[in-house]
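User: Hey, my collaborator sent me this sequence without any context and asked if I could get a structure. I don't really work with proteins. Can you help?
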Amino acid sequence: MRRVLIVGAALIAGLSAAAVAQAEPLPCSGDFFSQAQDDLAAYRVSAPKTNFYNDIPSCPGQASCRMKSYVVAKDVVLVSGVDDGWACAMFVGKTSFTHGWLRVSDLAKLPPPAAKPTDWAGTWFVGEETQITISRDGNGLRASGDTTSPRPSHPTGGFDGVLAADGPRARYSDDLCVVRFRRFDRYLIVDDNDRCGGMGVSFDGVYTR
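Assistant: No problem. I've predicted the 3D structure and written it out in structure-token form, which is a compact way to encode the shape of the chain:
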């Protein structure tokens, strides 16, 4: 009988742990956005105003998780995943960015962006030290990037050449540097192979014009 009770208790404990794990929301890390091009989507805010909620234990489902940061109607956010009525979202403003959980009910998913070459053109920024300029080059596109690492030695990086675009995706490559691009409405997601400059230099990030 004792053995049966022990096995039963272990089974209940296992089921309880599984239930807790299942109830835990997916992580919502800001670092994830530039590395998850296949899982991202753009959403437009449909509510008059909606606040971000923290990504910490026991959040986002409690009032104490609500942040001061918010977005308003017609703002476009980037979403990396949806879980139990919440969207892991990022909004990039003119001078800063915010990421956290938003209520899915306050958002409307946008269709994929158009694939015209002119939709890529412009100078895209992430932070103050990194920019990528995309321009028309005959019937194609050309991309030029410059960045300076925040490391103490301030190593720099860059690339310049033909940008091969296919719908909302594009790719630059040379003998060393490979950079992948993905458009989502007002956002440009960039991910490189860490060989586009000195040590610690990277073009990874969420860019806006």
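In plain terms: The chain has two domains: 25-109, 117-207. You can pass these tokens on to your collaborator as they are.
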